[in-house]
Amino acid sequence: MRNLVGVPRIAYFGPSGTFTEMALDRFENLGAFDAPVERVVAASPPAALELLRNGEVDGAVVPIESSVEGSVPPTMDALSLGARLQIVAETELDIAFTVVTRPGVAPEDVATVGAYPVAAAQVRKWIADNLPAAEIVTASSNAGAAEDVASGKVDAGVATALAGQRLGLAVLADGVADFAGARTRFVLVTRPGPIPERTGCDRTSVILQLPNVPGSLVRAMTELATRGIDLTRIESRPTRKDYGTYFFHLDWVGHIDDPLVAEALKALHRFAQVRFLGSWAAVSEHGVPPVSDDDDAQWLERLRCGEE
Amino acid sequence: MRNLVGVPRIAYFGPSGTFTEMALDRFENLGAFDAPVERVVAASPPAALELLRNGEVDGAVVPIESSVEGSVPPTMDALSLGARLQIVAETELDIAFTVVTRPGVAPEDVATVGAYPVAAAQVRKWIADNLPAAEIVTASSNAGAAEDVASGKVDAGVATALAGQRLGLAVLADGVADFAGARTRFVLVTRPGPIPERTGCDRTSVILQLPNVPGSLVRAMTELATRGIDLTRIESRPTRKDYGTYFFHLDWVGHIDDPLVAEALKALHRFAQVRFLGSWAAVSEHGVPPVSDDDDAQWLERLRCGEE
Amino acid sequence: MRNLVGVPRIAYFGPSGTFTEMALDRFENLGAFDAPVERVVAASPPAALELLRNGEVDGAVVPIESSVEGSVPPTMDALSLGARLQIVAETELDIAFTVVTRPGVAPEDVATVGAYPVAAAQVRKWIADNLPAAEIVTASSNAGAAEDVASGKVDAGVATALAGQRLGLAVLADGVADFAGARTRFVLVTRPGPIPERTGCDRTSVILQLPNVPGSLVRAMTELATRGIDLTRIESRPTRKDYGTYFFHLDWVGHIDDPLVAEALKALHRFAQVRFLGSWAAVSEHGVPPVSDDDDAQWLERLRCGEE
Amino acid sequence: MRNLVGVPRIAYFGPSGTFTEMALDRFENLGAFDAPVERVVAASPPAALELLRNGEVDGAVVPIESSVEGSVPPTMDALSLGARLQIVAETELDIAFTVVTRPGVAPEDVATVGAYPVAAAQVRKWIADNLPAAEIVTASSNAGAAEDVASGKVDAGVATALAGQRLGLAVLADGVADFAGARTRFVLVTRPGPIPERTGCDRTSVILQLPNVPGSLVRAMTELATRGIDLTRIESRPTRKDYGTYFFHLDWVGHIDDPLVAEALKALHRFAQVRFLGSWAAVSEHGVPPVSDDDDAQWLERLRCGEE
Question: How far is CA B291 from the centre of its chain?
């Protein structure tokens, strides 16, 4: 994950000051890279992933799922199409927004509030209660909302604390969130390569495209359920070809090196198109890991040798 | 579906000139109402449904699913929460956009293009190819994009043909769509009441909230699959409480008065929270209808009488 | 269940003194008949059922299942083929044998022991321990073994206490049984007619012939399992046509008038040949009855009326 | 499979002249042994298997399944209990009986016919049609019926051609069988040892004891069905402990060295008691072999290396 002069280049959904950049900080602090990182701003999650596919960066950090809004569609769609990429690590941030203004602007002076749509959806109630007269203007990112304030395009912005500080903006309100406990998960993505080692607390993610025959979805779910695999996310996204055809984005507990996960992957591959997005360490306990296969495999070996 | 003076009041996602209003036209032409309709503009799909819940209108027309973008999240979420509402009819429109400008504006003069986000997602490539220098500015609806052009807020707008005509705008391009064959389904929603009669080509829609135990989703899918019920849509939406808890929006072929559909509804109700969104005539063939139960029911009756 | 002069004629697997006759006694004592019964001896369970099919009797009592030996194959096969018959009641007897001799015969004088094969299988160990020198000679029934003793054909017989008494034989040993707690279930069979009323503790029995396609058996089991129907017996019997084709004899908890049992019967009938053998009161608690459908059915009705 | 002086000792269900001995001939002709065999007569299938468990013989030949009567219960029960044994080969014989008498005995002189119960069940109609006055007397085996004729115990016997020839008996009728095409499968059993090599046309046999929880049988069937394993036999036998508890005897197409069979065995072992009876070459095509796992396994390996 290094560039030619030994510095890994990592794209992230920017500009400077987004939650995504905060997630990149976190990855650095957690030791995800073995050298200082050169940060490359991308205008959107798909743009970050495209830089990675093109070889212009060695990794990309993008938001993938919000506890409030669900999967981040641009990220999901960009992972579904184009060359396969691989998730190697995750981190989660508590999401609360900072509403910023230019110094000296009072709440009653706020006629327009810039907000990234995902953010707008999470602070709508707060704005209605606190800035009832303000019109919401779409910003290109959470940090972009701060930039729009700094440039005078809007009176206030729903931003990150970091973006406000960097631009020297005033804080109208901090910790703003309509839904308590909102969190967003960010992932570090690379081109396909060796899979991070199994830790015992892992997440595996795949995108399935099922054959258009009755019972395909039941079959897929059954391949997981019979092996005791704990599905933690299932989201469907239309394939954009016709009604009723979907990509299914699945996350489950376990690692490709868990024998039952390997079995399940092969079983799905037998009848469906499976895009493997990776197995990596989960940031927290998130369900029931697959049971060990050791006893059963040893029993089978003993049978094969006639010892049992 | 009438108001006090005999005129049904129907809310729609406006302003005037949206695709949704065109869908309302279609419902009128198809005879969905037995009296002239009074149209009530709502600023968003949830707002239209809220007017209905409040009793301010008798029905609402909202977009529910795009063949390109999948379910329309604000509609889905507004149907999931609050008092139960009921879908009684559907129609589908081919979706292609009209890019409008003020008369006299040349393509090379377009620095900003207003677009509703759903529209922006469907014309992104066209804009990159044809108006590469233009910045996309978020509009509140497709008709709103035309209004933003008329008011001078933006130079061009991704709008409907109808909206452009009403405002006397010039047409820069017609039939604009990155994805050929894009369609959107619109539904007519009422408060709960008698269910439209079974036609033999019907759609049933429910929202499921499954108990948080392993195998719930397999169980739900199995209740449908064993009864030969053809699932035409499954979309998950986070419940906004925690990662991994979802509402599942399901559409299938058939009507609550099909015995196997009735069985399936009861079976789902046995272990899950089921919000029934209605059974109504599908606009086109869309899968395999449930088989008849007649032979089996008659056989059972003969057994009960000892005749077989 | 009466003959022309008001006396029901009931066939049973005889001769006089069999366990089956004891079961017929039990049915009489329990009030299964509303008039004194005329008993008609049949040489085998199939013969008893054939008398019933021919109209020569109004009912038949036959053994159907042993806790030690499983289903009684001649009974099962005779219920599978020919005109459909219907089970209307059951009773169970503890099975322990009485070894009888002619008066004055000592154990050491016993060179031959008559035994019906089902009985022989249940006393083999006792004979090996107590009459090690004796040869087992096949008898036509448990009572027939006593007759063979009386006629001098064998020295001792594995019989019922009743048969020994009636023939004035001596008792060499009583309560003989290799397997403690052995019981046999007997059923009262009639031609098809009204089904006994649901009691809440009922048994339903069917014979399935599944289509010869992969997954048929899983499908059948799933139709029962998804409805929470508690299967208490499953036995396969070859159809006698080719390897691998079977009749499946299934018993489960519940009554055809339990809505979920009715659903399951119809579901099985949809793809398999189903011979319904009846629903009747079980003699003892034997599993989990099907849940009520009331709540779900009422919910469905409210939906249909738009009340919920 | 050899004794101390280089001659394998093989027990069979005798006496001399049984179909089982004919099956042993067949195994010899097919080269199942690499040295001449010393034949050891056993009085019953369980007795033959007990000699094997005790180490008194190196192998045993027993009948296991009849196309008319289904599994041979004494064989099945003897394989279920006691130390595990292993089936290593099979052969099938067309079953038609030879009715023998002492020379000079005319059909009208036949008052008693000796028959092994399995045989009696397959010639009942022939006897009723051809020897209507004759009483059936139970013999200990098909060859034993011929011995009973020779010793004068009965007038005629339902035997094998071989047994009649060896005893110099006359043939009253040949090729006697109520059911056309009746066949019986015989197996060669050894103590556990290396498993015969996979041929691509194999049979695997197991005995399952399922936990007494609802859905166990569906789960077991599903583990096979999801892996496309073709079940060719399922027979239940009571465990002799209580009603409703069974051993399930399953045969399916494939070999323990087929990856999907290995998976299925491990999956069953995860929740049930599994007695593996062996994998061996089937004598004829008998269903759909498991699909290869190669593509899926290679895909998985490429994922693991980051090559795909």
Answer: 27
Q: Where are the beta strands (DSSP E) in C111-168?
A: 112-115, 135-138, 156-159
Please state, in angstroms and as integers, the Cα–Cα distance from residue B3 to each residue in B9, B39, B156, C155, following that order.
Answer: 6, 12, 39, 98
Q: Do D303 and A270 touch (CB under 8 A)?
A: no
B218 and B123 part of one domain: no
In this structure, the answer to whether residues C69 and C159 fall within a common structural domain is no
- Determine contact: D243 vs chain C, CB below 8 A: yes
Please list the residues that pair with B275 across neighbouring strands. B207
Domain membership of residue D307 (yes or no) is: no
Is 90 exceeded by the pLDDT of residue C105? yes
At A248-261, the pLDDT tens digits run 999 999 999 999 99
Shortest Cα distance from D241 to chain C (angstroms)?
Answer: 7
The complex scores an ipTM of: 0.87
Do B18 and B72 lie in one domain? The reply is yes
D266-276 pLDDT, tens digit per residue, is 999 999 999 99
C50 vs C54: CA distance, rounded Å: 6
pLDDT digits (tens, 9 = 90+) for D124-178: 889 989 998 888 887 888 999 999 999 999 999 999 999 999 999 999 999 999 8
Q: Coil, strand, or helix at residue D12?
A: strand
**Among partner residues A193, A256, A263, which is closest to D263 by beta-carbon distance?**
A263
Which of D137, D221, D246 comes nearest C217 by C-beta?
A: D221
CA distance A193 to chain B (A): 28
B281 neighbors B196 (Cβ within 8 angstroms): yes
| Cα gap B95→B121, rounded to integer Å | 13
**Which range among A95-99, B243-247, D301-305 shows the weakest confidence by mean pLDDT?**
B243-247
Strand order in the sheet with B97-101: B135-138, B112-115, B156-159, B97-101, B170-176
Q: Can you name the residues that pair with A13 across neighbouring β-strands?
A: A42
Token pair 């990509």: residue:
A247
Give the pLDDT mean for D277-302. Answer: 92
* Residue D33 domain flag: yes
B56-101 residue pLDDT tens: 999 999 999 988 777 888 899 899 999 999 999 999 999 999 999 9
Token readout for A280 is 């990596």
Question: In sequence order, what are the beta bridge partners of D44?
Answer: none
On whether both A166 and A304 belong to a single domain, the answer is no
A225 and A242 belong to one structural domain? yes
* Residue B224 resides in a domain: yes
Q: Which two tokens stand for residue B236?
A: 């998950």
**Do C280 and C186 reside in the same domain of the chain?**
no
pTM of the model: 0.87
Which chains border C (3 or more CB–CB pairs < 8 Å)?
A: B, D
Which strand (E) or helix (H) includes residue A98?
strand A97-101
SS3 label, residue A270 = coil
User: What gap in Å lies between CA A258 and CA D12, rounded to an integer?
Assistant: 47
Residue B264 vs residues B226, B294, C163, D283: alpha-carbon distances, Å: 9, 16, 55, 45
Task: Say what the pLDDT of residue D260 is.
Answer: 96
H-type alpha helices, C138-203 = 142-150, 161-166
Which CATH number fits the domain that encloses residue A129? 3.40.190.10
Residues D227, D111, single domain; the answer is no
Alpha carbon distance A144, A167 (integer Å): 11
Partners of residue B237 in chain A, C-beta under 8 Å: 70
For residue A282, report the phi and psi dihedrals to the nearest 5 degrees: -80, 150
Do D167 and D295 belong to one domain? no
Number of domains in chain B: 3
Instruction: Tell the residue number behind the tokens 């099909």, with chain if given.
Output: B258
Segments forming the whole domain that contains residue D14: 1-95+182-193
- The answer to whether residue C208 scores a pLDDT higher than 90 is yes
